[in-house]
Design a protein that fits this description.
The protein contains 4 helices and 4 strands. By secondary structure, the chain is of the alpha+beta class. Helix 1 packs antiparallel against helix 4 and helix 2 packs antiparallel against helix 3.
Length: 138
């Protein structure tokens, strides 16, 4: 049995590796150019339910009751449910209030990032195609 290339096809291991490296470099440069700023505090609105604002402090009240029920009886499903739902709501509120912003960069920097990322994806996918027949292997 002959040695097969990337993805079990004869597409080329070199294209596969070069595409993968380009994807990693472009993805790193893109993600490195994003600033993450939280807008979350104890009195700020975490999210809205039916038009009513829910603050992070309001989420912590059922969490405290849930933890109290868990310490009273560790097999109390209501306590575990309250604590878990409150933590999920708190995480959802933090994620919903994240502000993503691109750092200022030149057009050349952005073009280099996009060429690396999209070109790498193209090379990566081409390497998974069988070069002999031209058909994609599924």
């Amino acid at each position: 049995m002959a040695q097969r290339g990337a993805g079990g096809t004869d597409g080329g291991t070199g294209s596969f590796l070069l595409g993968f490296v380009m994807i990693c470099a472009g993805g790193y440069m893109l993600l490195n150019g994003i600033i993450v700023r939280p807008r979350f505090g104890l009195g700020l609105v975490a999210f809205r339910v039916g038009g009513l604002p829910v603050t992070s402090g309001m989420i912590l009240v059922p969490f405290m009751f849930g933890v109290g029920l868990i310490f009273y009886n560790a097999r109390n499903y209501i306590g575990w449910g309250l604590a878990a739902a409150s933590l999920i709501g708190l995480v959802f509120g933090v994620i919903a209030n994240i502000n993503l912003q691109m750092v200022s960069m030149s057009a050349f920097d952005l073009l280099v990032i996009l060429v690396l990322l999209v070109g790498g994806i193209g090379l990566f996918l081409r390497s998974l195609k069988d070069l002999k027949s031209g058909d994609a292997q599924g």
